[in-house]
Amino acid sequence: MNSGREQILAKLRAKRDTSDAAEQAARQRVAERIQHHAPVLIPARGLGDKAELLARFQQMATEAIADVSLHETETAALAAIADQLQQQGITSLVTTADAQWQQHDWASQGIQCQVRPAQVGDHASLTPCLAGIAETGTLMITSAPHHPTTLHFLPDWHLVMLRSSQIVGSYEDAWTRLRQQNQQTGGMPRTVNMITGASRSADIEQRLQMGAHGPKRLIIFIVMEN
Amino acid sequence: MEIHSPEFKANARIALHDASLQKALGNLRDGFPRKRAIAVSRLPEFEQLRDQARDLKNHILSHLDLYLETFERNCTANGGQVHWAADAEQARQQILDICRSVGAKTVTKGKSMISEEINLNDYLEQHGVQPVETDLGEYILQLRHDHPSHIIAPAIHLNLEDVSDAFHEHHPKYGFTERTEDAAELMAEARTVMRKHFVAADVGITGANFLVAETGSSIIVTNEGNGDLTQTLPKVHIVITSIEKVVPTLEDMSLFLRLLARSATGQEFSVYNTLSTGPRRSTDQDGPEQYHVILLDNGRSDMLGSEFQDMLRCIRCSACMNHCPVYGSVGGHAYGWVYPGPMGSVLTPQLIGVDQAGHLPNASTFCGKCESVCPVRIPLPKLMRHWREREFERHLTPSTVRQGLWGWAAFAKRPTLYRWMSRSANFLLRRLARNGRISKLPLATGWTDWRDMPAPQQGTFMDQWKKRQQSEQQQGGLL
Amino acid sequence: MPAVHTYTPARPKVALFVTCLVDMFRPGVGFAAVKLLEQAGYSVEVPPTQTCCGQPAFNSGDRLTTKDIARQVIDAFEDYPYVVGPSGSCIGMLHHYPELFADEPAWQQRAEKLATRAWELTSFLQDVAQFQGIDAQFDGTVTYHDSCSGLRELGVKQQPRTLLGQVKGLELKEMEESETCCGFGGTFCVKYPDISNRMVSNKTRFIKDSGANTLLGGDLGCLLNMAGKLKREGIDVQVRHVAEVLADACHQPAIGDAEV
Ligand code: SF4
């Protein structure tokens, strides 16, 4: 059935030394590389102390066309979110399952908060994330039982709660966090999103337009922890 | 896609006279290269990353079967299904079989050059499955029955009016009856229309920028978010990709990701870099129920170990074409098949035969700009030269060129004859010149149709030098 | 020994690789190169068996002919400590020779030795001779085209500019995209003339927009191409090889200009 497989692998193998010793050495190199998964080169901008990384994250995310704001507590961030939605006349919010978010008093500001996957027509979503990566202002967000991926793509606005302790320097730091999480959850999630700014396209005459198929705005609320 | 590479010269002539194409190409030249230069200047480690990317790719290529097997094992362990396709026909068949197994009527597609390479859309349509391109540029092309002219900016050859026309013709059925020339409105229109397709599709097909052996994942890199909706909403996600895309680990992938966006669009990072690993987990609320990866060979294993192996390092960033003065003059369609620009000039002869694509590696001045920006340091001019060598060996080089070369070599190998030829040419050209230049030269109309030929100064250097030496010797003798 | 030269025997020797275009089209560039090398303290010889570097064959995929010619060049220039040529393209070709002889180690070694001794004129003057004694006057504004092979194969970029900085009266006005190919490309310009024309047209526009009244460069092929186009378009910019300006040898008409 898989004749293609044998054909391809045989051709590839024919191109390298497969004598016993060479084969063993090659297999060992491959196994070790995968097992160690060592970083190749982390640029200086992926390194720094907490304050530097926070500042760099803010700068790079802003440059990538995301809105970034700092908040003392999560409660304060939730209040800011409600204010912002209200100001724009947005009356519905879809979120992941998070007890504290559900307890927030959305109704008093005329907002209906629902926990479900996103649908066409949703105006705004709110999700947590796994890490904020300073080197390019990138969010790493993973799918989970109560964290559907559609929340990141279908709504017009994607709001993200980022704890300052989640800010790391480099992609490699974020992979480390992902591996830690995988240990708890039992493996890779179906989807790992790395999101840098809001959706855009320059397919028409090379001119940048925001909001192609994904969210038109990416709004990041950083909760300061010490 | 039909092959039009043999008509490269005619294609190029048409392109050079196409004013709207020339305008569009002007946008390209002023855009990507400038942005890339800024991004590179902001990352001091960039050149070092390029060296390491080259070395890592070489390591991968010398262990390719092992990394592919590792990928397969881990992908399968996460519930994915891996299919190996030796050629385009096998890949198309595998995709159609999967579509049929779920009774698919429509499939959404993220941008994939491999799907162009295997001519997937026509094939699916012929077999009753309607593909819908979801990348904005690709979607516009599909409406126009057109093909990409660039590997990451597929509709780069079009102008705003072309898009307006296409939407105005095809979108009234979705309620958009007004013609608009506002780029933002056009995009909003596409967004609305496309959402209907995203939700309706039974299967989503994407490419992959990399495959991660360690985790069995595929990654797509986009700015629009269409690829994510393509691979999340339908019941089935098919990844169509090729064997050289595998990388060992997430860390290794990071190296390439740092180079990719900066080399391509000059962005620090693309908006969406998304890893997919297997189908949705049993407790997930969305995501596809099936995850298939098609690993296409289609001639790539032949390149391994050959003088063209370096080309397998390519990460499809498009920097080479963005900076190529030939691409910038004639655009991507002139190349006559899927892959344009310098990378296409090396890859296309391999994939469709050098007898068909012979012009491509010849239509280069070897200016070396492509190699100087390639993130994985592929020596593109050298590889194009290797194709010229193959053509020469196989007597595919035009006979006029061969004869000219033979005649020239006969002189170049004999210094005395060469002196005579140089002297005669110097003399003749001076006879033909008026006011220091020649405006029409019968055997070199390729030159004089477009520009004057400056006249030589009197007498060859070698003759004058000899005279000078002799007179110095005489003077020396007199003293 | 020619008595007219009063050099001390310690003067290091340089073999001039004239290049076929300079030989046939613009011997003045060859003499300018000789003058500069002598000013820099070298004794110049011109091996009489030299012809061409073999690039036309190399770039047409004719490896056998290329190798024949390469052997001839290696022979002709073997005994000199330095080989210098007024062309980045031809000297760049000499640097390609080792790859031709992958299966002939003896020749490969000789080719490698040649490559390490072969220098483009301005980079030799600047990087090897560290020549500070340019004695020239040029009253005008110039713009400089970086020819591809010199720039990307040999790293020739600052050297000609630094040397031009020593020329009295000269003002350098950089054009846009000075590093973009002019469309010459050897046989390319006759094989794909209309593409070549598009490229050289872009170039002449940048040259004109620079506002300079003279275009300089280090490769005669490119200069003939650009001069020919400037003339055809009636753009009043003079074109010269950089060696002519550095050697104060601009008494002859510029490339493509009428003799008076
Ligand atoms: S050849 Fe190099 S520059 Fe061109 S697309 Fe491939 S990786 Fe990018």
Give, in spatial order, the strands making up the sheet with the most strands of chain B: 1-10-7-4-2-3
Summarize model confidence as the mean pLDDT of chain B.
95
According to CATH, the homologous superfamily of the largest domain in chain B is: NagB/RpiA/CoA transferase-like
Number of helices of chain B: 24
Protein name (chain C): Fe-S oxidoreductase
Organism (chain C): Pokkaliibacter plantistimulans
Pfam family, one (chain A): LUD_dom
InterPro entries (chain A): FTHF_cligase-like_sf (IPR024185), LUD_dom (IPR003741), NagB/RpiA_transferase-like (IPR037171)
Structure description:
With 226 residues, chain A is an alpha/beta fold. Chain A contains 6 helices and 12 strands. Chain A has 2 domains: 1-37, no CATH class; 47-223, NagB/RpiA/CoA transferase-like (Rossmann fold). In chain A, a hairpin with a 7-residue loop joins strand 10 and strand 11 (209-210). Chain A is elongated. With 479 residues, chain B is α/β, with parallel strands linked by helices. A 6-stranded parallel beta sheet of chain B has the order 1-10-7-4-2-3, with helices on both faces. The longest helix of chain B has 23 residues, at 19-41. Chain B is elongated, with a radius of gyration of 27 Å. Chain C has 2 domains: 13-126, no CATH class; 133-246, Rossmann fold (3-Layer(aba) Sandwich). Chain C has helices spanning 20-25, 27-39, 55-59, 63-77, 88-100, 105-117, 121-128, 148-154, 158-164, 188-191, 193-210, 220-233, 242-246, and strands at 13-16, 43-45, 82-85, 118-120, 137-145, 168-172, 214-217, 238-241. In chain C, strand 7, helix 12 (220-233) and strand 8 form a beta-alpha-beta unit. At the A-B interface, helix 1, helix 2, helix 6, strand 9 and strand 10 of A face helix 2, helix 3, helix 4, strand 1 and helix 8 of B. Strand 9 of chain A pairs antiparallel with strand 9 (272-276) of chain B. Bound molecules: iron/sulfur cluster. Iron/sulfur cluster binds at residues 263, 314-320, 343, 374-376, 378 of chain B.
